[in-house]
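Journal club side-thread
Mid-discussion, someone asked how the predicted structure for our own chain would compare to the paper's figures. Pasting it here so we can look after the session.
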Amino acid sequence: GFCLNRKQMFHLFLLFFVLLTNQHYVGCVDTFSVNVDWENVLITSRSTVTLQVVANPLLNPKTCPVADKCWQSLANLGADLVRYVPWFPYPKVGVAELNPPDEKAKTTSWNFVDIIPQLTAFMNATVMKGHTTIPNFSTQPTWMYDTKSWSYPENPNQSDFGYPRGVARANTTAHVAAYYGRLLKWLVKGWFVDEFGHNITGGPAYGDKMTHWEVFNEPEGCHGLDAMGYVKQYDAVVTSILDAIAPHKLQFVGLALQNRNLQWWETFLNASNHKAGIPRDYASFHFYANCRSRTDPTSYEAFFTKAHAFLQQELPPLVEARAKISPETKISCDEMGVILPADNDPKSPIPPPIYWNAASAMWAYLVGNMINMGVEILGESQLAGSPPIPSYGIPDPQFPSVSMLNWTTGEGNARYWTLKLLLDHGPKIGDNMVSTDAENSTNTNQHFCSVVNGHYGYTSAELSCVDSDATISEIQFSAFGTPTGSCGNYKVNPKCNAKGVKDYVAARCIGQKRCSVLSYPTFGDPCHGTYKELVVQAKCSTGGGKGFPSAGPPAFYAQGWIAGAKKSVLLVNTKLDDVEVTLPTTGGTGGKIWIVDEATGWGPAREGNFQSNTPLRMSPFSVGVAVFDP
């Protein structure tokens, strides 16, 4: 018979009314069986799910009518290790000394008037309610660098993405370190002494409520910094802060890398690059996915492709470097999200409601995987952003596609409610993550693929069968070079294709439950100067199989865990199609389920009941947590 899946239907009706009405048309539905081995513990979680808050005009209680509601939404989350970043586009909100000291008048420009409103609201919503935070006043005063201009907008709500400029002078590190020492003393103790010996008072004196501090944000190349230059400034800043706030102590977070550069990462982790005794409590980095279109939901599946490549290719070297160089240092991915094309173009269209579900599902997919890889902080980015809203005192866009709140009301979108779902019902530190897979019972062929991308390193393709008595029965495709296509539809590129690959892989793998094939130098170099891939498509004698690195994200993702006697499963639909999911009887006969999907809209997760072995329908990009009855 003839049937259309949701993606095909979307294309068919796109010109007429799908985007306008946001309606769904149900065609063929894939079915998945979730299998959980409750006895096979992968890792005991040491991860905290949280979020980033970036100071911006939507959160300014002096000018924005929904700011208070935004801050209340933050408080309602009850999250810990919440990151707060007053950053460079808004200098008056993030820099406390915008002009150099006046040597003749013996005066300074220290001013916290525009900093205090959002800082106070943030701290009231977090630490004053018993939660921990990681502040990061990431922007250094531009006048401390070799530049003739350190101008900034007079309007604190007006953005200036060109504020950081100039490269370091001989005395820049000393200036920057002294600046942060004074800033932290103002935050912790309520006062400091300026450059001319004057007492600056009136600080919040948060004392022991200040527990963490992150040094700079996305420093790669900023003000001409290289990896060792950053380490030197980090050491100087940390030393100055600890001297200023003594005997109070802080835990420090370093790097906040934008591009996850391994050389920067390893340089920071290496104790021999630092002064003796300098703490490296955390090292952090960021991840954002993207796609080709702001408004076409069929492009949103690319979020998971980007996330999958990050998980398989980029994150493992960072985790391995931590284990090898500085195992005591914790890892923080404190910015995770999606940035849509032309996000800061004021003329860009607002994405359809299902976008928020797609972005939230991608984050949940990352969370489940990254807990299993031992990443300690998993921060969704960011609480609030918006397009220009002149009536709210917001003249410029501030990454609206990254917002977790409805900028007209201050209430949560699907990204917010997915975080709330995981905070309330997701895995916690100390829970045991267990072996889980979601088998597509619609795929009768049951082929699976592994792809080693040489751009990220020529590692091995690893194949394994899921069923305990199954073996690899067929190598359907294998090539080393630049093959084209996707899993189930690969083709060799005759211009770059090593000989004998399929025969070699078949001889090594057929009849085995699992096997491993090294990509290089096993097959030589069929096209020098080009990054190559080892691609293997295989089939097992019964059931499905797994490839690592796998060819792409799963169509449906599941991850189980045990908290005491309670068994739970995270469920994520990564596709723009409905799916049916069956949960295993090994967890129990049924239980409670909470789901965030397009139907929940701007509201919290929908609570319901499920029965094991009874199909549960999940709509596109939905996220659920199922908790089995004891």
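Post-session note: Residues 10-27 have pLDDT under 50 and may be disordered.
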